[in-house]
UniProtKB/TrEMBL annotation:
Its main location: plastid. Keywords: Chloroplast, Plastid, Ribonucleoprotein, Ribosomal protein. SUPFAM superfamilies: Ribosomal protein S16. It is found in: Plastid, Chloroplast. One of its GO terms (biological process) is mitochondrial translation. Belongs to the bacterial ribosomal protein bS16 family. GO terms for cellular component: chloroplast; mitochondrion; small ribosomal subunit. One of its GO terms (molecular function) is structural constituent of ribosome. PROSITE patterns: RIBOSOMAL_S16 (PS00732). NCBIfam families: S16 (TIGR00002). This is Small ribosomal subunit protein bS16c. It comes from the Eukaryota.
Length: 88
């Protein structure tokens, strides 16, 4: 199963996160399938590759709680058909 989750990057006390599609059994810094965006909580910046995110969601990828809230804030789910939304 594939999840959309955050992968920590950056230095100490200055975390920056990549949003990646990754296998559930992989660890946080494990090998990802594809990078689909990034999130900088210090500057409150988010970049999302929306077509790739929608592709993974259509294939059954489940976003984690934090990634799901970032996607809702960016209104990504408006482009996703509502009958396919079955998240945790």
């Amino acid at each position: 199963m594939v999840k959309l989750r955050l992968k920590r990057c950056g230095r100490k006390q200055r975390a920056v996160y990549r949003i990646v599609a990754i296998d559930v059994r992989s660890r946080r810094e494990g090998k990802d399938l594809r990078k689909v965006g990034f999130y900088d909580p210090m500057k409150n910046q988010t970049y999302l590759n929306v077509p790739v995110i929608l592709y993974f969601l259509e294939k059954g990828a489940q976003p984690t709680g934090t990634v799901q809230s970032l996607l809702k804030k960016a209104e990504v789910f408006k482009e996703f058909p509502s009958n396919q939304m079955k998240f945790n």
